[in-house]
Amino acid sequence: MAEPARSIYNLTYDQLSERLADWGEPSFRVQQVWQWLYQSLVTETEAMRNIPLALRRRLEEDLGMGALRPVRTIASQDQATKKWLFELADGETIETVLMQYRRRRTACISAQVGCAFACAFCATGQMGLHRNLTAGEIVQQVLVVERFLREEGEEKQRQLTNIVFMGMGEPLANYRATLQAVRTLHDPRGLAFAGRRITLSTVGLVPAMRRLADEGLELGLAISLHAPGDELRDRLVPINRQFPLAQLMDACRNYANKTGRRLTFEYTLIRDVNDGHEQARQLVQRLRGLLCHLNIIPLNPVSDRAFQPPARAQVDAFRQILERGGISVTVRMRRGIDIQAGCGQLRSPPPTRHQRRNAV
Ligand code: SF4
Fold first, then answer.
1. Cβ neighbours of 200 (radius 10 Å)
2. How far apart are CA 128 and CA 315, in angstroms?
3. Spatial separation of the C-alpha atoms in residues 313 and 292, rounded to whole Å
């Protein structure tokens, strides 16, 4: 099988610094190269004007600029959501989504090709896990979206404001690459993306959540909950059998205590499965006293699954029970549903020959 591409984006600032020192370059070069990559967002070493030609060639040949080839981009009817399908160097494909709100521009990025956790209602979960993404492949998704906003965004909307790891895969199952990517995005010498504006989503990998709490980063953490009790969660989110709710909630409390960050719980509402009044009351009990916010997401239809979204009245009734129970709650707007870019809808079909030929 082909390897993921070599890429300069796989290196941290310190690693790049060491590499350039090994090549006998003066120490100021690393800052220059880093700025070209993460402030100017160049795509070719040729554009690095203050870097000597010999070094530009060496960067290209020895490190490579990475390969994230857009084979298809589509926008929702209202143009607020845009989805990229990228082909990676080994032929795998991933999806990245930009969601534009009035005040926020959020990139939803992938951490793995496919996913091993097989949540019952999730399109990505149906693919199984193909492989982890490298740190460079994660970072480059953000750079593509940021470049797009700079070039085509409306005035005053030319920068990303938020990054969420809610695309394909489970970021905490690709812990090392995810954290390295976060640190690169966060680096003040480059994109300088504040940790508070980055959210990792997890299905509830308790040991990794505990580790993350001790990283000294202020990342947002979103937990895919989807059920108020173990019996149902075992069915909807199979990893619950390994890390049941008591353990998960304990890890959540630990994260909130150590980071001071309010947790977000995601609850996909599915008709006649987890949308009952009694289930809403159980959820109140489960979340009461925790520094948290609950997002209710009416199920996005995935064509080959039996689950259905609830009726609007059921969504409202569910929300009201939570509110009366003192839980901070939002019903999330369905974004990009017409282009299969909603929650649990990302699944990358291999590009057709036509798409490969017409790659944008
Ligand atoms: S919901 Fe998240 S963890 Fe579950 S299968 Fe989908 S991508 Fe994987």
1. 25
2. 30
3. 25
Mutation pick for ligand 1 pocket among 97, 113, 117 (CB with most ligand atoms within 8 Å): 117
Whether 146 is catalytic:
no
Rounded Cα distance between 351 and 88, Å, is 11
User: Among 49, 59, 48, which Cα is nearest to 9's?
Assistant: 59
Q: Which of 119, 133, 241 to mutate to test the pocket of ligand 1 (most atoms within 8 A of CB)?
A: 119
Of 176-185, 264-273, 348-357, where does mean pLDDT reach its minimum?
348-357
Neighbouring CB atoms inside 10 A of 289's CB total 9
Give the chain's mean pLDDT.
Answer: 89
3-state secondary structure at position 246: helix
Does 115 qualify as catalytic in the annotation? no
For 97-135, write each residue's pLDDT tens digit: 999 988 899 999 999 999 999 998 887 888 899 999 999
Among 108, 119, 104, which residue's Cα sits nearest to residue 340?
108
Ordered structural domains, the chain, with CATH: 8-63 (1.10.150.530), 109-338 (3.20.20.70)
